[in-house]
Amino acid sequence: MSCLSVRALERLLAEDVPYGDLTTEALGIGTEAASIGFAARGAMVVSAIEEAAGILRLAAVDVTVHVGSGDAVEAGAVLLTGHGSARGVLRAWKVAQTLVEIWSGVATATRALVVAARTVRPEIAVACTRKNVPGTKALSIAAIRAGGAAVHRLGLSETVLVFPEHRVFRRDADLAALVRDLRAQAPEKKLVIEVNSLGDGVAAARAGFDVVQTEKFAPDMVSQLVSALASMTPRPLIAAAGGINPDNAAAYGRAGADILVTSWPYTARPADVAVTIARAGAR
């Protein structure tokens, strides 16, 4: 099922083809029968294939989807095939291809990060932040989920995360007072705080925060914090954030982080999808 509504898909298609396809119409080929196929040029984790199919269907192309978002495929795997008029196929082709390439790139990068982290700590969570490109949240979240990650924060409205930037406005309050105020105002929410030092992390844990998020701690600093809090019952979760990627994910897992918080997959290189378009019945 697509994460985008039909109206949202229509907007994407209209953005690229607002007044018809001038080239196709000028050549007089719009009514020719055509076929289209998408295939993976390399190994990838698929995402946005349902949205690509939706775009093609809006252009009156009869589509068969051969894989689903979240599937890991090898080079050469057929992703979707379709038949329709040349007008429809050529109209929807690039928008559909670009959706699959960009978001499969994000899903593939996410999977690589999750695998790197869980190789050393199978139970560790990888959570992607809200720092995706504005306007792309639905596709961003679908892609990181396809890759096996969780959502760190959908936005500011549903989670409590105290940054140092919040605390500058409450210089009169100690950490215990912040916890007390937050519990009173949002009693059903987990309380998360970002810290910049080992001492601040220990203090935040003792004050009663549920999750201590370390900002740009090296793995050895995360290990020190985990050791310092080992005797606490219950111990807050330790979330390592800042610069997390597949090259260092295992180190943070070994250090004892419970959660890896990252925006890294959103910068991934797009996957490469081969598109074949032909006249129906042509050899």
Describe the structure in your own words.
The chain has 283 residues and is of the alpha/beta class. The chain folds into two domains: 6-105 and 269-279, Quinolinate phosphoribosyl transferase, N-terminal domain (Aldehyde Oxidoreductase, domain 3, Alpha-Beta Complex), CATH 3.90.1170; 114-267, Aldolase class I (TIM Barrel). It is 40% helix and 21% strand. The chain has helices at 6-16, 22-27, 49-58, 86-118, 137-146, 164-167, 175-185, 198-207, 219-228, 249-255, and strands at residues 33-40, 44-45, 62-65, 72-73, 78-85, 125-128, 150-151, 160-162, 191-195, 211-215, 237-241, 259-262, 273-279. It has a seven-stranded parallel sheet. The protein has a four-stranded antiparallel sheet with strand order 3-5-1-13, covered by helices on one side. It has a two-stranded antiparallel sheet with strand order 2-4. α4 runs parallel beside α10 and α7 crosses α8 (198-207). The longest helix is centred in the middle third of the chain and has 33 residues, at 86-118. It is elongated. The relative contact order is 0.16.
Short characterization:
The protein is of the alpha/beta class. Helices cover 40% and strands 21% of the residues.
CATH class assignment of the largest domain? Alpha Beta
Average of per-residue pLDDT values? 96
**From the helix content, strand content and strand pairing, which structural class follows?**
alpha/beta
Which word captures the global form? elongated
**How much helical structure, as a percent, in the residues?**
25-40%
Give the topology, please.
Elements: H1 6-16, H2 22-27, E1 33-40, E2 44-45, H3 49-58, E3 62-65, E4 72-73, E5 78-85, H4 86-118, E6 125-128, H5 137-146, E7 150-151, E8 160-162, H6 164-167, H7 175-185, E9 191-195, H8 198-207, E10 211-215, H9 219-228, E11 237-241, H10 249-255, E12 259-262, E13 273-279
Parallel strand pairs: 6-7, 6-12, 8-9, 9-10, 10-11, 11-12
Antiparallel strand pairs: 1-5, 1-13, 2-4, 3-5
Helix pairs in contact: 1-3, 3-4, 4-5, 4-10, 7-8, 9-10
